[in-house]
Structure formats: C-alpha cells, structure tokens
Amino acid sequence: xxxxxxxxxxxxxxxxxxxxxxxxxxxxxxxxxxxxxxxxxxxxxxxxxxxxxxxxxxxxxxxxxxxxxxxxxxxxxxxxxxxxxxxxxxxxxxxxxxxxxxxxxxxxxxxxxxxxxxxxxxxxxxxxxxxxxxxxxxxxxxxxxx
Length: 146
Description:
Blueprint: E1 3-8, E2 12-18, E3 25-32, H1 38-49, E4 53-58, H2 68-84, E5 87-92, H3 96-106, H4 111-142
Parallel strand pairs: 1-4, 4-5
Antiparallel strand pairs: 1-2, 2-3
Helix pairs in contact: 1-2, 3-4
C-alpha cells in the first residue's frame, strides 16, 4: 500500500512517498503552499504516485500542546482529504526538520541547497516514522501481543 507523506509549512509543503509495500519512505519534492492550483496539484500527486492514503505532519509542541501551526495542519489535512478523496492521517512531526537539517549538514550539502531539500527530507522522516509505527502495531497484533 503506497502512502503519500506531506509536511505542510507556510511557504512550502514537503512531499515524500512510500514504496509499494509501505515499508520505506523516500523524499520526492516540495510544493508551493501558496500556489493557486494547490488542490489540483495534490490530486495529481496522489494519482501520479498511486497513493492509497496520505499522512500529514502535525506540529505538536514539545510540551504536547497544539498551537496555531497544528490548527493550520489540521485544516490542511481536511483540504487534502477533499482534494484527493483519500484517507488522511495526522502524524506527530516533532524534530523532523531538525533531523533533516542535521542529515544535510552531515552530508555536506551547501546552505543554498539545504533550504529546498530540507522540506522533502523532513516529509520522508515524518512518513518513515508513521510507517515504522504502523509496522510495529501490525507485528504486535499478529503475534498475539497487545
């Protein structure tokens, strides 16, 4: 089952997609969050990737509270659901941007290229967390554990 991962921000939306087995996440691209045709682009992206569901990053504060960015992410998730007709799940995205930035720094990526790569890599980190948690839940249920 292929899953599309979206990490919304004010300016850009990071995009990642899982493999067809739903095991690994790969960064794909980023979208302009302010594009007038964003809904059409989201629908096209879901179709192009043969996604069966979508995961949207939910920015939760370190103390577990949801602020204005989380409210915006929830509204965006509903927009994605309407635009694509797919099931949309929200996924905690704490530290995904930091993780992406560190990976890019360690890889020696120049500052000018890090800005555009960071969003799609953060989306992949978020989507991988979702895939790993889903796999763990399936493992626990299949062996009779809680």
